[in-house]
Specification:
By secondary structure, the protein is α/β, with parallel strands linked by helices. It is built from ten helices and twelve strands. It folds into two domains: 132 residues, ATPase, nucleotide binding domain (Nucleotidyltransferase, domain 5); 149 residues, Nucleotidyltransferase, domain 5 (2-Layer Sandwich), CATH 3.30.420.40. A hairpin with a 3-residue loop joins strand 8 and strand 9. The relative contact order is 0.16.
């Protein structure tokens, strides 16, 4: 009998759920999403959880062994009490995400479902170490550059959550001018900076299109993001001695050379030979990575 986990991924723009097998494969048709956004409230999150979990569980194979639920959430979080304290959803601060998922899934199933909760960056890092780009690394950091910037550590195949589950929360480290990395390098922040320089587009997708067409400001915004990420990763590599960093998220695909630009900035900024050796690679799991990682919290 194949073991499965219910995976729930909660971010600043959307919530997703799916069923994932012990082999890291999503069950066909089980994935669905609902919008979250800056105006998300406990009530709207309750509604989203009910919808996506009901959809996922309705696709549970007849011969499946559902062993638990895994949740990866944008942070900060408090893993010890099961709450989220998200930067990008201020009205949801203190929301009991773990209990909400466990209660909803258990009610649908008619039995208690064990539930594991972690930071979405940590979940992604676990997925990359299990099935993705960092399988051969002893010590790795996996990050997302998207609406926000977050990450997580895996050492010798084990997720390292830290005291409250926020280890690897790279987007909230301070950089130039007292800004956080997320306030410099995320997709929305990069678009806002470009607008301040006279660019007339609106989104990260617009930046990608215009930079490819030769717009100098759009290209400068992309390079600024990659440089900030690379310099922050150089500090992380110096601090914790990393073999490899995997980068995913929508904005990391804003240009074909974004990963190369990050690697160049890391190598130029790192203080020591061991940190300069850290390799930067593209995520090996694409947009399924966060869900596979959430499931891995329960499966592994």
């Amino acid at each position: 009998m194949t073991r499965y986990a219910l995976a729930v991924d909660v971010g600043g723009t959307k919530m997703e759920a799916a069923l994932v097998s012990e082999h890291g494969e999503l069950v066909r048709g089980s994935r669905s999403r609902r919008a979250t956004g800056r105006d998300a409230t406990p009530a709207s999150l309750d509604d989203a959880i009910a919808t996506v979990i009901a959809h996922a569980l309705s696709r549970l194979p007849d011969d499946a062994e559902l062993i638990g639920a895994g949740i990866g959430s944008a942070g900060p979080i408090d893993r010890n009490v099961g709450q989220i304290l998200p930067v990008n959803m201020p009205a949801a601060r203190g929301y009991g995400l773990k209990d909400a998922v466990r209660t909803t899934a258990s009610r649908i199933l008619g039995r208690a479902l064990p539930t594991v909760f972690g930071h979405d960056g940590g979940a992604l890092a676990l997925a990359e170490s299990w099935l993705g780009a960092t399988q051969d690394a002893g010590a790795s950091l996996s990050i997302v550059v998207s609406t926000g910037v977050g990450g997580g550590f895996v050492v010798n195949g084990a997720y390292i959550p830290g005291a409250t589950g926020n280890a690897g929360h790279l987007g909230q480290v301070r950089r130039e001018g007292g800004l956080t990395l997320e306030e410099i390098a995320s997709g929305p922040a990069s678009a806002a900076w470009a607008q301040q320089q006279g660019w007339t587009g609106a989104t990260g997708e617009d930046l990608a299109k215009d930079a490819a067409a030769g717009d100098a400001v759009a290209r400068a915004a992309i390079e600024r993001s990659a440089k900030a990420v690379g310099e922050a990763l150089a500090d992380a590599a110096t601090l914790v001695d990393l073999d490899m960093v995997a980068i995913g998220g929508g904005f990391s695909r804003v240009s074909a050379d974004y990963i190369d630009l990050v690697q160049q900035a890391l190598t130029a900024s790192a203080a020591h030979e061991y940190s300069r050796r850290t390799r930067v690679v593209r995520s090996g799991l694409g947009d399924e990575g966060p869900l596979i990682g959430a499931a891995a919290l329960a499966l592994r």
